[in-house]
């Protein structure tokens, strides 16, 4: 059954990998080929048939698509990963253009929003990549806390997952409150333990991740409030 469930995610995983490659390719082309674009202009507008001319817009669409598609695997970290990938590729493209002699690092070029040097664009791209990395780390930490990812790894084969109910909300500040978590172990014995959760948890399906060999040890139990069913 586990293999069958994992198999259902393969197409989506492949699509995410393809979209990540699209982000890298499009943003790298957008910067590395910018000096080779041939523009045709009239009195009111300019256009080009070169891929590099439309790469930034297509890259932005790919970032949005990846952020949505990869939520199944990366959860809240998905947008940050997409931004970090885009920023790294964009900076790499400018470095490639400088390395090829297409443009000097201190030479200004008219790109999208104005005249800036390649060095300035590299700095901006690195800042975007760094911001994306921070977003990914924070989002990943939030997702791991909500889904109990680290606790799952810690318990390994002893992991047991039970449906849980939350009662007795008591606010403790900043949108968080103390609740009583109740669940039944594999033997049908009712177990309870206290937990502090965000208000969002009250409207979600709740699971308890506990040690199958020691279900009564509350120090080895964690509450999980995933957006989707996670087993």
Mean pLDDT: 82
Query: Distance between the terminal alpha carbons, to the nearest Å?
Result: 12 Å
Write down the oligomeric state.
single chain
> Using DSSP, what is the number of strands?
9
Radius of gyration: 24 Å
Structural class, by secondary structure, is alpha+beta
Q: Strand order of the main beta sheet, please?
A: 7-6-5-8-9
Low-confidence stretches: 1-5
Number of helices: 7
Percent of residues in helices comes to: 40-55%
The share of residues in extended strands comes to 15-25%
SSE arrangement, N to C: HHEEHHHEEHHEEEEE
The largest sheet, given as strand count, sense and whether it forms a barrel, is:
5 strands, antiparallel
Overall body shape: elongated
Summarize the structure.
With about 230 residues, the protein is α+β, with helices and mostly antiparallel strands. It is about 50% helix and about 25% strand.
């Amino acid at each position: 059954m586990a293999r069958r469930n994992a198999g259902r995610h393969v197409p989506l995983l492949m699509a995410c990998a393809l979209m990540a490659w699209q982000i890298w390719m499009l943003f790298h082309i957008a910067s590395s080929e910018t000096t080779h674009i041939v523009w045709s202009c009239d009195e009111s507008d300019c256009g080009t048939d070169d891929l590099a001319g439309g790469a930034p817009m297509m890259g932005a669409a790919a970032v949005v698509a990846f952020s949505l598609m990869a939520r199944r695997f990366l959860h809240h970290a998905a947008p940050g990963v997409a931004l970090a990938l885009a920023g790294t590729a964009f900076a790499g493209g400018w470095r490639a253009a400088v390395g090829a002699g297409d443009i000097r690092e201190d030479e200004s070029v008219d790109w999208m929003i104005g005249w800036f040097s390649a060095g300035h664009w590299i700095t901006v791209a690195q800042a975007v990549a760094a911001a994306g990395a921070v977003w990914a780390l924070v989002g990943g930490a939030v997702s791991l806390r909500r889904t109990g990812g680290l606790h799952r790894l810690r318990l390994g084969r002893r992991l047991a997952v039970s449906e849980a109910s939350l009662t007795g909300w008591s606010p403790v500040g900043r949108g968080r409150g103390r609740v009583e978590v109740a669940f039944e172990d594999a033997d049908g014995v009712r177990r309870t333990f206290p937990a502090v959760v965000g208000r969002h948890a009250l409207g979600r399906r709740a699971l308890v991740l506990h040690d199958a060999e020691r279900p009564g040890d509350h120090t080895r139990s964690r509450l999980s409030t995933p957006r989707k069913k996670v087993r």
